[in-house]
Amino acid sequence: MDLAFIPSPSTGVVHLGPIPLRGYAFCIIIGVFIGVWLGNKRWIQRGGRSGTVADIAVWAVPFGLVGGRLYHVITTYEPYFGEGGHPLNAFKVWEGGLGIWGAVALGAVGAWIGCRRRGIPLPAYMDALAPGLALGQAIGRWGNWFNQELYGRATDLPWALKISDDPSIGRVGGTYHPTFLYESLWCIGVALLVIWADKRFKLGHGRAFALYVASYCAGRAWIEYMRVDEAHHILGLRLNVWTALIGLVVSVVYIVVSAKKIPGREEVVEPGALEAAADDTGTGKSGAESKKGDAGTTKAAPKTVKGAPKAAGSGEESVADGAAKLTKDAGSGSRSGKDS
């Protein structure tokens, strides 16, 4: 008898009248908002403008959703195009089935388009977005909990996930490893790691993003190995395990090579952002200096008034003094010309 376990929701859909509200979709949407919010804060810290991350996300998010769905459908085509499959179900994203590999790959294409339109280097943008992506994944993984999918091997651990029986889809009830929870917690750790490393080592030119990919892949490899849902295998390993291992190796190689070829961090990440900030700051200083200057002029006025009586002295003395000064200046000018 299981004394403790994590219960699964009895349903992943709540109907608000005729409108279905799906837990899976809510988790994805919340994850996107959190990712963009954190990415925006980091972009501003890097010297970019507020709102730029969201503007580019308008391109990246739709591309990412399409890429994630394409990866899932291509690598798990049987329910859609296999014997007895239903091709139209490939468009039912709300039922689950988004491959992170395709989402990141095609999402990067969308981000590249957005960055190109704004004249922004893609690596700098991806560096700012990296921890937000990991945090968004941590939240999005809870969508699998609502759909009762992507769990691991059977276990009686206190944190085991209770899965209900559903013969219509071949799901056997029981308690299993909550791989969705493992990956969610791992992604939170990845986000914290990237934030720390970026602050400590001033990562730039895509290296913060590469660190995110490498650390995520390291965790995904062992988490994927625990899963028991059907998947294609290559040389005895699940396809996603191989994908994770390849992503890990490529990311580490990129970090090492790019650190040697282009060390440091980009000084300018968004054209015009620093100038706009400088103009705003300069306007404030000019106003202060203007007030200071006006105050100085007002304060100096009494000196002119104070000196007036002296100038109004004897006319003969003034003429004599002036003549003596002119004579002295003339003599000085003659010597100066000779010396030169």
From TrEMBL:
What this chain does, per the record?
Answer: Catalyzes the transfer of the diacylglyceryl group from phosphatidylglycerol to the sulfhydryl group of the N-terminal cysteine of a prolipoprotein, the first step in the formation of mature lipoproteins.
What cellular component terms from Gene Ontology apply here?
A: plasma membrane
Record-stated family: Belongs to the Lgt family.
Could you list this entry's UniProt keywords, alphabetically sorted.
Cell membrane, Lipoprotein, Membrane, Transferase, Transmembrane, Transmembrane helix
What is the protein's major site of localization? Answer: membrane
Signal sequence region: none
- InterPro entries in UniProt: Lgt
Q: Which gene encodes it?
A: lgt1
Tell me the compartments it is located in. Answer: Cell membrane
| The keyword Iron-sulfur is annotated on this UniProt entry | no
Q: Which GO terms describe its biological process?
A: lipoprotein biosynthetic process
What Pfam families does this protein map onto? LGT
- Tell me which PANTHER family the record gives: PHOSPHATIDYLGLYCEROL--PROLIPOPROTEIN DIACYLGLYCERYL TRANSFERASE, PROLIPOPROTEIN DIACYLGLYCERYL TRANSFERASE
Annotated region Disordered: the residues are 273-340
User: What membrane topology does the UniProt entry give?
Assistant: Multi-pass membrane protein
Q: Which GO terms describe its molecular function?
A: phosphatidylglycerol-prolipoprotein diacylglyceryl transferase activity
Q: Is the keyword Transferase assigned to this protein?
A: yes
Species source reads Streptomyces paromomycinus (Streptomyces rimosus subsp. paromomycinus)
State which residue ranges cross the membrane: 23-40, 52-74, 94-115, 180-197, 239-257
Q: Record's NCBIfam families?
A: lgt
| HAMAP family, sorted | Lgt
Quote the protein name from its UniProt record. Answer: Phosphatidylglycerol--prolipoprotein diacylglyceryl transferase
What does the record give as EC number?
Answer: 2.5.1.145
The lineage's top-level taxon is Bacteria
Residue sites binding a 1,2-diacyl-sn-glycero-3-phospho-(1'-sn-glycerol) per the record: 141
**Hey, which pathway is this one from?**
Protein modification; lipoprotein biosynthesis (diacylglyceryl transfer)
